[in-house]
Specification:
The protein has 293 residues and is mostly beta strands. It has two domains: 87 residues, Udp-n-acetylmuramoylalanyl-d-glutamate--2,6- Diaminopimelate Ligase, Chain: A, domain 1; 190 residues, Hexapeptide repeat proteins (UDP N-Acetylglucosamine Acyltransferase, domain 1). Helix content is 12%, strand content 30%. The chain has three helices and 33 strands. Helix 1 links the parallel strand 3 and strand 4. The longest helix is centred in the N-terminal third of the chain and has 15 residues. It is globular.
Length: 293
């Protein structure tokens, strides 16, 4: 889509084409991005970005001339406004398909299945009062526990005028095969056409919450009451302990280990164990405890 085809009050300074919408730091070639700082412009230049941006009048001269640009006093809010208009227009994002539910799936009579946009594979079990909402794809041998919600709308708001508006979801949730999710968990669907992805063989305990666009690698385990923000990337065989919190945008490498009650606000290296609030390397945390006792 061309910027000149986007309806809105923001000025198109340089026309260009984009094929997706994203926000920093997660971006891709061909995306429409909000840019609010020179550090973000440097990231685009370093990554040979091709796409379009929404930025301020002051930052526009620093944006490479080959990148399409809209000028706005509030780039992030302008992006969400454009995204919402595209969702409602049903042109930019793919249309919602009809349901595909395998006959071998065991779905409890009290479970709620959206009327469209749901795919459930072979030998899945959907428990009592579970909700499988639009945009959810569930591969074979998946177990969904009682009261769990798959594909909820992320409660993301942005300011508009004197009020606020919710960012509409245009993505989904993908549960790979052999995933097991216990009772009263929540997995938010992606917003910008992407999916929140739970890898093969992942296990959730009760009351786990997963934010939009998060990717969890194969055979990871999340204990009870773990809370994972949006746009988190976890590698394979990651362990997240009970009552732990992982902040949005964090990356956890393969075999990362987050101990009980940790609050993770920085990336975790592969095979690293972190503890504490805010979480640091586990050995440093234990050394600190010894010093103060």
């Amino acid at each position: 889509m061309k910027l000149s085809e986007v309806k809105g009050s923001d000025r198109v300074e340089r026309d260009g084409e984009f094929s997706s919408i994203a926000v920093m730091p997660r971006w891709r070639i061909g995306a429409l991005l909000p840019i609010i700082g020179t550090d973000q412009i440097a990231m685009l230049s370093k990554g040979n970005f091709r796409g379009c941006v929404i930025t301020t009048k002051d930052l526009l001269p620093k944006v490479p001339v080959n990148i399409g640009a809209i000028v706005s006093e509030h780039p992030v809010e302008a992006l969400y406004d454009i995204h919402n208009a595209l969702v409602k227009g049903s042109v930019f994002y793919a249309p919602t398909p009809e349901n595909q539910i395998d006959g071998s799936a065991d779905i409890h009579p009290t479970a709620i299945i959206a009327s469209k946009g749901v795919r459930i594979g072979k030998d899945c079990i959907i428990g009592p009062k579970a909700s499988i909402l639009e945009g959810s794809i569930i591969e074979k041998n998946v177990i969904i526990g009682p009261g769990t919600v798959i594909g909820s709308e992320d409660p993301l708001l942005f300011r508009k005028g004197s009020g606020s508006e919710r960012v509409l979801s245009a993505g989904g949730v993908l549960l790979r095969e052999d995933v097991e999710i216990h009772a009263n968990c929540n997995i938010s669907r992606g917003i910008f056409g992407d999916s929140t992805v739970i890898g093969a063989g992942v296990k959730f305990d009760n009351l786990v919450c997963i934010g939009q666009n998060t990717k969890i690698g194969d055979r990871s385990f999340l204990a009870a009451c773990a809370s994972i923000g949006s746009d988190v990337v976890m590698g394979k065989e990651v362990w997240v302990g009970p009552n732990s919190t992982v902040s949005s945008g964090v990356t956890i490498g393969d075999n990362g280990y987050v101990t009980i009650g940790a609050v993770v606000v920085e990336d975790v290296r592969p095979n690293q164990k972190v503890s504490g609030n805010y979480a640091i390397d586990h050995d440093r945390f234990i050394e600190f405890l010894r010093k103060i006792r």
